[in-house]
Write a structure and sequence with these properties.
The chain is mostly beta strands. Helix content is 2%, strand content 46%. It has one helix at 30-34; strands at residues 43-48, 53-58, 62-67, 73-78, 84-89, 95-100, 105-109, 114-119, 126-131, 137-142, 147-151, 156-161, 170-175, 181-186, 191-195, 200-205, 212-217, 224-228, 233-236. The strands form five sheets. It has a four-stranded antiparallel β-sheet, with no helix packed on it. The protein has a four-stranded antiparallel β-sheet with strand order 5-6-7-8, with no helix packed on it. The chain has a four-stranded antiparallel β-sheet with strand order 9-10-11-12, with no helix packed on it. The protein is globular and about 45 Å long.
Length: 237
Amino acid sequence: FIDLLPRVLMTEANSPVETVPEPSSSKMSNKQWYQRRVRHGYLSCCRFLSDKQILTSSGDTTCALWDIETGQQTTALVGHEGDVNCIALAPDGNTFISGSCDTSSKLWDIRDGMCNQTFFGHELDINAITFMSNGQNFATGSDDATCRMFDIRSDQEMACFGGEHIICGITSVAFSKSGRVLFAGYDDFNCHVWDALKLERAAQLMGHENRVSCLGVNEDGVALCTGSWDSFLKIWN
């Protein structure tokens, strides 16, 4: 285990790193020393690229690449026009996608920090985003009550999952191991299961007593876990 917090210095995009005195030389408590913040935006998501690099998204409309050893921001990825709510790494580790309150999702190349593609279709904030295992398709979940699937090669939306019976936002999304099924957590306390081939709802997982706030599929693809504001985790076979 490596204690990273004392070395991580948060900063807004394109600004000098703001240093903070060590606790030993100031009146700050250890808790205050460990609680660093982005000066102009909350952190919405973070993903390790390696044991030396971490990727973050923020309410300041940017994503950022950080050097863990030095605590310095090495790359600011600028292009969204609203809060960046979510990010997902591609299986090859060279690219990632981001979802934003500006209703768009973007494909970025980590190696040069450039945005290669922008995808539109949603009408409200994108809250969740995930890659399919093939690395060529991804899915998004939005406050507009729809999930959408996009194809990177054709640069377009491939499917929209929703209907008149669903009127609430999506908080989380995940594909099954094969990519045939898309799981989505909703504000209506349910997890809806979508068939990505037939483009229809395959099942509805009910049992939570508050919004489903997160979900994930295990590595073997045999179980789904949902987490909720009702304080419970549920495992589904």
